[in-house]
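Students often ask why we bother encoding 3D structure as a string. The short answer is that it lets us treat folding as translation between two languages. Here is a chain of 196 residues written in the first language.
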Amino acid sequence: MTDMSSPKPYLEIACQQVLEEDASVFSVQWADLPMSLTGDLTPEHLLVRYLEYINKCTFTVIRPVLLAHGVEFRLIGTERSLISFLPPAYPDGFAILRICGGFLVQPRQCDRGELRFGIEPLAEGMRVSLQLSDFCPLILGSRSPSRLRFWLYRLTQAAIHRLVTIRFLALLCHELAGPSAGVRIVNVVVRDGKPV
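And here it is in the second language, the structure alphabet:
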């Protein structure tokens, strides 16, 4: 007989998304997985999977394009880059895309920001993470965004980014642990800032 009182096993996805004092965005999501589930997962593999996922989850409206000079997230049917990145760098345990331009980035802040994919060892497993840091969205306008701009960003671009990254990690967790594994979102505090 099955014990119905035992809790359903679940995996946690930790999440924080804030606007820092200099009005740049910091966003991090991670899942701590048992070593038995991570197999051959690498930062390079995580990056490739994420780019494929962006294409699929946006129904190809946003297409990640790999070029000799980097990666561009392009709007379908155009050559216009929403966000442009330098070619990936692979320091130990990470794949990093450094922001270098794009329509959604403040023009004077194009040399700031990065999207980081991590696979880090823990005492009893691996941490799979996605982190966006020092990103200066065009919609905020400046280092002193108005209240209207802040709320516009929070309700649009910030909400979409959070949803996309959490769903990507949830999909990855289900693929590794099986579709019956539960997933729970947990808010964490990594950096100080105004929640977005």
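Translate back mentally: Strands lie at 10-19, 25-33, 62-67, 70-75, 81-85, 94-101, 114-122, 125-135, 182-187, 194-195. Keep this in mind for the problem set.
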